[in-house]
Automatic annotation (TrEMBL):
PANTHER family referenced in this protein's UniProt entry, alphabetically: OSJNBA0084A10.13 PROTEIN-RELATED
Family membership: Belongs to the GRAS family.
TM regions (residue ranges): none
Domain of life: Eukaryota
InterPro entries per the UniProt record, alphabetical: TF_GRAS
Organism per entry: Vitis vinifera
Protein name: DELLA protein GAI1
This protein's UniProt keywords: Transcription, Transcription regulation
Gene designation per UniProt: GAI1_3
């Protein structure tokens, strides 16, 4: 199509001081898209100031679209027992979906279970304060946080395409739903992932 594209990968952690047009080499007249995949929850601190600062920095970049993919779970409670029980139910669904999708001998599955989800569970239940960075939240909470930061949700219009992609896995346990502009992925009735798209609200872009 003759449209030049440039991809800038932001390393972790992405501080508000780094999220500037100068640091990211955003040039005048360019159209900017921000894609955050399972990243923003790491800024959900107990005071919420860190996430607010990151979202404000993203808004100042003037992006045309911001896409957010996060785990749809409540792992940010202040009490251990609540987080433990929520993690138990959530990751039971996750591991059950892996059992149905990948054979037990799959190196890919073992890497995901031990290296990724295993470390997440450990951080959620065994750490506190600033050391606890796996602070996943539910879709409603993400809508509130992004709305307060000056973003408005853009309705998802690709349900049929998403369902077609999901059918490729040949597994009946997954479900898709669109709720208040968010695309929700579930496993046997349990929400596990959410995807949403956002624009800077007109009232806050000035």
């Amino acid at each position: 199509m003759g449209v030049p594209l440039q991809l800038n990968t932001v390393s972790d952690p992405a501080t508000p001081a780094f999220l500037t047009k100068e640091s990211l080499d955003v040039r005048e007249g360019e159209v900017l898209f921000v894609n955050s995949i399972m990243h923003l929850h790491k800024y959900v601190k107990e005071s919420r100031g860190s996430l607010k600062a990151v979202l404000q920095a993203i808004k100042k970049l003037g992006p045309t679209l911001v896409t957010v993919v996060e785990q749809d779970a409540n792992h940010n409670g202040p009490f251990f027992l609540g987080r433990f029980l929520e993690s138990l139910h959530y990751y039971s669904a996750i591991f059950d979906s892996l059992e149905a999708s990948l054979p037990r001998s799959s190196p890919q599955r073992m890497k995901i279970e031990r290296g990724h989800f295993g470390e997440e569970i450990r951080n959620i239940v065994a750490f506190e304060g600033s050391e606890r960075i796996e602070r996943h939240e539910r879709a409603d909470q993400w809508r509130r946080q992004l709305g307060r930061a000056g973003f408005q949700v853009v309705g998802m219009k690709s349900m049929s395409q998403a369902r077609m992609m999901l059918s490729v896995y040949g597994c009946d346990g997954y479900s898709l739903a669109c709720e208040k502009g968010c695309l929700l992925l579930g496993w046997k009735g349990k929400p596990i992932m959410l995807a949403s798209a956002w624009q800077v609200a007109k009232a806050s872009s000035s």
